[in-house]
Amino acid sequence: MKKIGILGGSFNPIHNSHVELIKKALRKKVVDEVWIVPCKKHSFNKTLESGAHRLNMINLATKGLNNVKISRIEFQSTGKSYTTDTIERLKKKFPKCIFSLIIGADITHEIVHWKRCKQLLKETSFIISKRKNYKLKKIRGMKIRGIISATKGISSTGIRKRMQNNQSIDSLVPKAVEEYIKNNRLYQLNLATSPL
């Protein structure tokens, strides 16, 4: 059975901490592959760049990385994206794979509020990335496959704000992603969601 680490998120945009996390999960060998799963619509109604732009940036950021795949499974669904539903669909589609969710330690404080949280905890294991200033919260019933050392404290929100303020994002995103953002004039004004 192939062990797959699922890294989900809006990736609006993908940044160097995401890439570092992927590399660490593979280097630690807690998974055989990492599948990046960008959401189509944010569950908390956050405005996102188009799916096409976000997928293009993910492709640029992960180019040359072995054992990394991009899943468009949430783009094939309607409505909001919920982690529990995505994991269910992946298990049905790939029954010979074992899936684990890769999350930051800060997310452990939020899981109890996720849709069908108890079912997710029962059926899925987790790979936790340590975060500075966040203590790893023990969740009853959570199965932890592995713990990864902390990554750089980069946030997509901070990158978008820097772009809107005409500030440098050098060292925050891969060079190819930085060029893509600038060439396509992303995050410079209020975002408008457009279809994939």
How would you characterize the overall build of this protein?
The chain is an alpha/beta fold and 196 residues long. It has one domain (2-183): HUPs (Rossmann fold), CATH 3.40.50. The protein is built from six helices and six strands. The chain has a six-stranded parallel sheet with strand order 3-2-1-4-5-6, sandwiched between helices. Helix 2 links the parallel strand 2 and strand 3 (68-70). The protein is globular. The model is unreliable at 191-196 (pLDDT under 50).
State the main characteristics.
196 residues, alpha/beta, Rossmann fold, six-stranded parallel beta sheet
CATH architecture descriptor: 3-Layer(aba) Sandwich
Structural class: alpha/beta
Helix content: 25-40%
**CATH topology label:** Rossmann fold
Total of domains: 1
Q: H/E element string?
A: EHEHEHEHEEHH
What low-confidence regions span 5 or more consecutive residues with pLDDT below 50?
Answer: 191-196
| Strand content bin | 15-25%
Overall, the morphology is globular
**What's the tally of helices?**
6
- N/C terminus separation: 32 Å
- How many strands appear in the DSSP assignment? 6
The CATH class designation is Alpha Beta
Helices, strands, pairings?
Elements lengths: L1 E8 L6 H12 L5 E6 L12 H12 L5 E3 L12 H11 L3 E8 L12 H7 L1 E5 L13 E6 L7 H9 L10 H9 L13
Parallel strand pairs: 1-2, 1-4, 2-3, 4-5, 5-6
Helix pairs in contact: 2-6
